[in-house]
Specification:
Elements: H1 2-38, H2 42-78, H3 83-94, H4 100-113, H5 117-132
Helix pairs in contact: 2-3, 2-4, 2-5, 3-4, 4-5
Length: 133
């Protein structure tokens, strides 16, 4: 199991290396091959794919930033330790779909276990409101 995961990681890194090294040439060859099949319309399609991909990446990043900042406000008012560090962790985890509840949920559980019942419940409600709203 571990060997399989390491082999997949190695293949991914090797593929990434060649994409970075020869990416421009590869895109040019793919564009020419598709132009031979589809015609000159391919340039518009490829530009649309690039624009869409860029928009999705920006959208994910900005959404993660917004979730992290709002969760950080909750950490601060709940009295969680190191709210700035927790905000940074939330931002990183928010880049993973449906990852944010694991951070604020964990902090809520920790607050509850430390006897801060109101703060723990308040942070959990704040996190649920952010996730639903």
């Amino acid at each position: 199991m571990v060997f399989s995961g390491l082999a997949k990681l190695g293949m991914a890194l090797m593929t990434l290396f060649f994409f970075y090294r020869d990416g421009t040439s590869l895109v040019r060859q793919i564009r020419q091959a598709l132009r031979n099949i589809i015609g000159n319309r391919i340039d518009g399609y490829i530009d649309s794919v690039g624009t869409t991909t860029r928009a999705v990446v920006y959208g994910i990043g900005l959404t993660a930033l917004a979730q992290a900042l709002l969760a950080g406000v909750g950490y601060y008012f709940a009295g969680a330790p190191s709210p700035i560090l927790l905000t940074i962790v939330t931002f990183i985890i928010a880049l993973i779909p449906f990852g944010t509840p694991f951070v604020w949920g964990g902090v809520s559980i920790w607050l509850l276990s430390q006897g801060h019942t109101v703060e723990g419940i308040g942070l959990a409600l704040w996190g649920i409101w952010l996730s639903v709203g």
